[in-house]
Amino acid sequence: MFKKSAPAELVARDRGLLWHPYAPLNSRPLYAVTDAYASTLELQTESGTTHRVIDAMSSWWCQVHGYRHPVLDAALYEQSRRFSHVMFGGLTHEPAVELAERLADLAPGDLNHVFLADSGSVSVEVALKLAVQYQAARGRTDRRRFLALRGGYHGDTVGAMGVCDPEDGMHADFAGLVSSQVFIPRPPAASYDINTDSWTVDEVAQQRWEQAAAQTIESHAAECAAVILEPVVQGAGGMHIFHPRCLRVLRELTTEHGLLLIFDEIATGFGRAGRLFAAEWAGVVPDVMTVGKALTGGYLTQAAAIVSAPVAEVISGSKFRALMHGPTFMGNPLASATACASLDLLTGNRAAGEQPHAPDSRWEHSVPRLHRALHRSLTPLNSLSAVRETRVLGGIGVVELDRPVDVPAVTAAAIEAGVWVRPFRTLIYTMPTYICTDDEVAAIGSAIGTAVEKVYGP
Ligand SMILES: *Cc1c(COP(=O)(O)O)cnc(C)c1O
Question: Which of 4, 138, 146, 287 has its CA 20 to 30 A from that of 247?
């Protein structure tokens, strides 16, 4: 089926042919993956050296149960023996219905209605379009802009780009295409202590932010449909952790001003940020929640916009009565069946009498364990001169340098030390799989330390 190439040759075939994320056609280095199992990747360099490394990235937050999980493999295989895909227009099927029921069950409050999309960015587009339709249905056709947080990231499609940080999001390069939205300042950094179960923030900065948020929302509410943000952790916009109190403030302000509140939980959802959904840190229920990334346990691309009952009711009473979107691969059965199996593993939902699945990746057990293990393994890195700070929340660990990371050099040094990381800007970060052992988390911390020391000195 495939022309089998030696890794060096494979990389040569790739180069100049394929684009990789945010990289030039000829970017290097590039590593060939030859195998993946549990938390481990087998990589080969261009010179043919094989490295077995711990995947500290979980394939960009997705692979929560590890590679080649028997339960997910079986779910995917079983569904492929029935049908792999059918259109969703006018047709339905068991995997999609099951998945929607589970999502509605797990999501907080009255988030009871589900739109299945084919990627995170698309689910964000759906949420934004929904907000505009919602306002129009209530006679507010003038409310067509969005409020977002500075430092946020919501995807790469044109609508989503508009609500990404206006500087990082490269808005200037796409002026005229990406619409100009309204930005609330980034909330101040906060930290969570798992031992005392308490949050710390600079109270003055926090209050200043709350005032600024209120002012921005008050002066722009009349032209805006919704506020969108990543709750508690901003991911690709800078791995920034802020106080859950901000969510309550925004819930109150959006309700007061007739705006929808959209939580983008594509990165934070399914336990990653220490709660099943980061919204739960504040006990806040948004009007719309987007999920993706870990939804299928990292097997296939799928995402969802989960919508509250009252908002869904307004959409149902609107001009088109429908949410005006409908991707070809909407509700894909393979992805939906795998997602159901992944949610079972995450929540420990098993048929009575069945043995716990090994390895155990129930989020309630694994994520607090990861938090403690990451804290132990990353805190010592503060003694390195290039390290500005380390921070941890749930299954997310961040090492921030005082300078932009030399990505090829740090990546190569980390691979030598047995770990795959993909730094960006000043950040080396990790989101281990939920089956990563404490020893593996310790190895991730020490490999990052070794890499930083090799590239920047002690
Ligand atoms: C990754 C991400 C997206 C985009 O998801 P894709 O599946 O890459 O389109 C949107 N929002 C957040 C918070 C993300 O982390």
Answer: 138
- Ligand 1 atom closest to 264 (CA): 13
Residue 248: is it exposed, middle or buried by C-beta count within 10 angstroms (0-12/13-18/19+)? middle
pLDDT of the residue at 358:
61
- How far apart are alpha carbons 313 and 275 in whole angstroms? 28
Q: Which of 22, 173, 197, 319 is catalytic?
A: 22
**Per this entry, what is the length of the chain?**
458
> What value does the mean pLDDT take over residues 332-359?
82
Position 353 pLDDT exceeds 60: no
The two structure tokens encoding residue 107: 């999501």
pLDDT at 1 exceeding the cut of 70: no
Q: Are 286 and 263 in contact (CB under 8 A)?
A: yes
| 2 pLDDT more than 70 | no
| Percentage of residues in the chain having pLDDT higher than 90 | 89
Handedness of CA 217, 222, 223, 225 (dihedral sign): positive
Task: Give mean pLDDT, residues 216-242.
Answer: 98
Asked about 31 being catalytic, the answer comes back as no
For 442, residues 6+ apart whose C-beta sits below 8 A from its C-beta are 373, 376, 377
- DSSP for 281-338, written as a single string: GTT---SEEEE-GGGGTTSS--EEEEEEHHHHHHHHTSSSSS-S---TTTT-HHHHHH
User: Whose alpha carbon is nearest atom 5 of ligand 1?
Assistant: 120
Residue of 63, 293, 429 with the most ligand 1 atoms within 8 Å of its CB, for mutation? 293
- Give me the pLDDT at residue 354, please: 59
- Is 37 a known active-site residue? no
- Residue 8: pLDDT band (50, 70, 90) is confident
Sign of CA dihedral 164, 166, 172, 176: positive
If we measure between CA atoms, which residue out of 87, 97, 46 comes closest to residue 337? Answer: 97
Of the candidates 236, 167, 243, the one whose C-alpha atom is nearest the C-alpha of residue 431 is 236
Q: What type of residue is 220?
A: H
120 lines ligand 1 (CB under 6 A): yes
The answer to whether 22 is a known catalytic residue is: yes
> By C-alpha distance, which of 340, 325, 279 is closest to 118?
325
Residue 7 preceded by cis peptide, ω within 30? no
**Helix (H), strand (E) at residue 93:** none
Determine which residue's CA is closest to atom 6 belonging to ligand 1: 120
Give this prediction's pTM.
Answer: 0.97
pLDDT at 59 over 90: yes
> Please, are residues 409 and 430 in contact by the beta-carbon 8 Å criterion?
no
For 414, the 3-state DSSP assignment is helix
> Which one from 192, 293, 344, 429 is the annotated catalytic residue?
293
Query: Across all residues in the chain, what is the average pLDDT?
Result: 95
Residue 88 Cα to ligand 1 middle (Å): 23
**H or E element that contains 167:** none
